[in-house]
Amino acid sequence: MKLKLAICDDDASQRAYLSEIVLSWAKRNRHLAEVKQYVDAKAFLFDYAEEKDFDILLLDIEMPGMNGIELAKEVRHENAAVQIVFITGYYEYFSDGFDVSALHYLIKPVDERKLCTVLDKAADHLAYRQRSVLVSTADGDIKVSLADIVYIESENVYIIVHTAHGSYRMRMTLGKFAGQLDETFFKVHRSFVVGLKYVKKITRSEVTMINGDTVPISRGLYDEVHAALIRYL
Fold first, then answer.
1. Is 46 buried (19+), middle (13-18) or exposed (0-12) by CB count in 10 A?
2. Which is higher by pLDDT, 232 or 67?
């Protein structure tokens, strides 16, 4: 896999140490990795304005000027796919990572094995995001990432594919489309398939998605849906 990583830390020795680990990990796993180092958030954002194709960010939290949490929020406004890993010397920041869907926190001094494990997880997430399906619309076929599909609903001979970025209506049976999906989706009703990652709440009668939409659950399926969610988590 081709990966582009950024290491943002005001400590030059820390940047060099992390870069060495990343490049060694990439070589062992046969990834083609490009690693760019930045002394602070301002330097990173200057490059990011022109190059938005970073896959993994290793961000120090305690930096002069804009800190790592603030930098991550800036990036997250327009990039949901990038994998963010925080590097910190303090546990107090852990709760802040929920706002930016941080992949992991690593406490300084960073343990090489732990960083490699986190990088493995990041690569798996990125590989999953690359899996996609074709959705036929009046304007032509659109490639939609599986990771962006919130839920699919059936409407007579059509289906509506609801994604994190909009909805698409196409002529196809729900069963045929569902055959292209993986184990991160579950058919909760004869007319609905949901993406488990986007489920916010379930009751005996319905599923509430993270975007606020509600989807009915077929009678008797609650236990199966609940079990699928537990497996996914």
1. exposed
2. 67
Whole-angstrom distance, CA of residue 51 vs CA of residue 48: 5
For residue 152, which phi and psi values (nearest 5 degrees)? Answer: -125, 135
pTM over 0.85: no
**Cα–Cα distance measured from residue 102 to residue 57, given in angstroms and rounded to the nearest whole number:** 10
- Tell me the Ramachandran region of residue 187: left when phi exceeds 0, alpha when psi lies from -120 to 50, beta otherwise: beta
> To which residue do tokens 């920041």 refer?
93
Dihedral in degrees, nearest 10, Cα atoms 200, 152, 228, 97: -40
Q: Considering only CA atoms, which of 190, 185, 182, 191 is closest in space to residue 229?
A: 185
Q: Which residues, in sequence order, are bridge partners of residue 32?
A: 2
DSSP 141-161: EEEEEGGGEEEEEEETTEEEE
- CA 88 to centroid of chain Cα atoms: 21
Alpha-carbon span 233 to 220, nearest angstrom: 22
Q: Determine the Cα–Cα distance for residues 55 and 60; give it in Å rounded to an integer.
A: 17
pLDDT of residue 74 exceeding 80: yes
d(CA 13, CA 30): 26
